[in-house]
Amino acid sequence: MPVVSNHQSIQAGILADFKDFWRQGFPVFKKQQERMCRVIPPNNLRTITEVWKESVPFPEYWAYGAGRKVQTFKDINTTLGKCNYELTIGWSRFDEEDDQLGDLRTHIQSGVGRYKMLTDALIAEYLNNSASLNPAILNAYDGAVLISTTDGDGAARFGVTGGNLVDGAGNTPDGLIHDLAIIQQRLLAAVDPTAGKPIFSPEDAAYSKMLCIVPKELNELFQKTAESENIKLASNNMVSESNYMKGKFEWEANNYLTDTSDWFVVIQHSFFKPLMLREPSAPEVVFADMSNSDSARDTGEYKAHSHVRTAIGPFFPFSIFKVNN
Question: For the chain, how many structural domains are there in total?
């Protein structure tokens, strides 16, 4: 008597479970990624263009009887393509038949579910300035890499000496607090290239708008500095002092960072984000099995082929700072 295969029902179950898995889990990752990225919803365009205003007109003196002067915005066009990412998971048809624990579906689903982590890895490559999953590390619109002391013409970035790269004062509580103060000063000093007026307001540059992204090795230091009531603010001071920075900035450890002593600060601004992201839609998944694959019939190996299309690139570089220790 022929054996009725339950393979098609297993496939249907994997796809149904995965849709739920993606729908419930991806928004959690997306919410975190939106703190770093200007997110562009999925669309059919191979290349997209984001337009924004680099310089905003500023009021001028208007003498009695004089005519008005028309001031204009300076438009910046930022383009970003779309990249393909694939994941193929293979398993034996005999493993499927002998799946006594009933967990084969779960393993396949979890494997494909790692697409949720793809954007985090793409972001980290820009922080590490090293491309692997990204085809390349793209320059920002001003011709320099995301983190740079100067723009592409060799001038101080946004008029600020040192740009968005800070020489760290050392990974101690007092060094950390000093570096945050330097970043605040640079934000307030940044001017748009045309009008020469400040880009950020004091509210934009407040410590409460700063998100520190740190390697796991600095987890203890940042926890101590951000949450302790009293800390030793200077290395030559044996007495703890009241921690005036408690609760004033956010921080999170990132296990993708490759340098154990450098860290980053991202300004939580409603528009200016360091990166732009073409949001991936739910991965497409197809199966190669006995019904449609000569290789599967020949070897007994089944495969789940999946892919997504997404991309990431620089948007506004002066909303992120690197502290180099």
Answer: 1
